[in-house]
Design a protein that fits this description.
Length: 73
């Protein structure tokens, strides 16, 4: 599924306002800090925190790594 990279660049986590990671394999946008995965359906991200899926600590760590790679940190 294609999601406009410019769109994901402008999206932030609704809770912490931090950067989020686009996981194309699972069609989710992930906030490693809040440990939440926001589902994307029909190219529309569902950024409602109450409907996001919680991540395990391990998953959150993996996504945090990806985030630092994207940002070149
Ligand atoms: Zn967050």
């Amino acid at each position: 599924m294609a999601l406009d990279p410019r769109l994901t660049a402008t999206l932030v986590c609704p809770l912490c306002k931090g950067a989020i990671v686009w996981d194309a394999d699972n069609s989710v946008l992930v906030c490693p800090r809040c440990k939440l995965a926001f589902e994307v359906k029909d190219n529309i991200p569902n950024m409602i925190a109450e409907e996001a899926k919680p991540l395990s600590d391990e998953q959150a760590r993996e996504y945090a790594k990806r985030l630092s790679m994207v940002r070149g940190a």
